[in-house]
Structures are given as structure tokens and as C-alpha cells.
Design a protein that fits this description.
- The chain has 257 residues and is of the alpha/beta class.
- The protein has one domain: Rossmann fold.
- The chain is 35% helix and 14% strand.
- The protein is built from 8 helices and 10 strands.
- The protein has a 5-stranded parallel β-sheet, with helices on both faces. It has a 3-stranded antiparallel β-sheet with strand order 5-4-6, with no helix packed on it. The protein has a two-stranded parallel sheet with strand order 8-10.
- Strand 4 (101-103) and strand 5 form a beta hairpin.
- Helix 1 (17-25) crosses helix 8 (234-247) and helix 6 crosses helix 7 (188-204).
- The longest helix is centred in the middle third of the chain and has 20 residues, at 137-156.
- The radius of gyration is 18 Å and the shape is globular.
Length: 257
Amino acid sequence: MPDPASPAPRVLVYGSCVARDTIEFAEADTVDLRGYVARQSLISVGSDASAHLPTLDDVSSKFQGRMIQADFAGSLPDRLDKLAPEVDVLLWDLADERHGVHRFPDGTVVTRSIDTMKVTSVSAALDGAVLVPFGTDEHFALWRERVEAFTTQLRGLGLFDRTVVLDVPWAIRTTEGDPAPWSMGVRAGDANKRYRRYYDELRLRGFRMVELPEEVVLADPQHRWGLAPFHYSPDVYREVLRQLREVHGFDGFAEAS
């Protein structure tokens, strides 16, 4: 239940671009961010691959190092256990599924993220792992197994009804009418097709969803993180915030003026 001492909903973000940027777009005093778990595919959740983690002497930031360590540890279940009593909304996007996962010979899994690809020591450590690309039948089967366990944990912690999935498609075009750029060799239309059965699975399981149609979603060339099909125009974040307030009934989530 919401904390009466806090005027804003206490939010845990599990995801990356979509949820993170939505929170940053909101008026600061209408959202209380309690945690941020990024760069961690649901398939790697609960899979402790720490034995394969190299020394991270070549990371570019402390945040990058923390996210890599957390992913190799599959840390989300522990974070949920600790944070559940102080979370009013778990905001979940599937952005970090987009690159697939790496599976080591011992069966442990880590996320193929921008960080693991850019950090030389981590990339080298993944040489002995098999890539399971996003959108393949194998990836979806592994992901669906983890959804079962994740849903059970959320229900056990009383978080299931406070979880909202952001079903926001990649933008086909920019605000200037140009085609949105491809990302890692994938164009937006193809990515949206790959994502569809993942969102459908969550919908069938009864998760709350924020849903935007493809035709209203535009990429913003002026976005603070640069032009990408998942870096949206302000209208997209406004609509996500509106649905959190008016469709799902959460207090707060007002857009910044």
C-alpha cells in the first residue's frame, strides 16, 4: 500500500530506455524512484554466472560496472525481496531483451547488452558462451519459463497487482517524418514483430499494460540520449504517464512542466 508519509508513488524500474525516460520526464516530486535494475534480461534473472565475471578494470563508469555485476549475479530476485515493502509501482519494460542472451556451458546466462559488448574484458569472457538471439523460438521458450517464476515471486511479494508493463513499440518514423534508424542491425518494424508474442504472453498472464499503437509513436532526434527507435518524442512519455494515472489509477506521475 502507498506510504502515507510519501506524497509520491514509490517506484522500482526494471528495464531500461522506456521506463527510465518516462520517470525522468515526470515532475520530480510526483515520483519517488526507489531502485533501478537495468541491463538484465529476464532470462538471466536468478542465474548466477558470477564465476564467469572478469575483473572490471576497463568499465567507463561505476553505473556500468554495477549493472554488469548485477546481471552476472542475476540479482533481480534479491532486489525485489529487499525492496518490495517500499514499492508502490514496479515499472517494467522489455527494452533489455532486444540483444538476446549469452549461455555458458554450465547453463548460466547473462544478458547481451550494450555494456557487455563495449567492455573488452566482458566481451572476451563471453567468447565461450553461446548467443541466443532475441525473438528466436529458443529465446522465447527460455524467457517464458522465467516469466512463470517471476510471476510467482511477484505474487508472493504482493507486487503483481502493482506491476505495470510498458508495451511501447519501436518508432517507425521520427518527429521530422524521416525513417527511424535501425538499432544493432534491426529495423523498428521487425523488432515490433519479434516483441509481439512476449507482450501477448504477459497480457495472457494478467499483467497490467500501458499500450500505445505504433502509428502514434515517434522517435525524437533531439532526445537527450540521441536518436534511436526507442528514444521517443515527449508526447509518448506524456501518454505513458497519463495511462499510469488515468487507466491504472496510480497517484503521482505528473508530467514536468
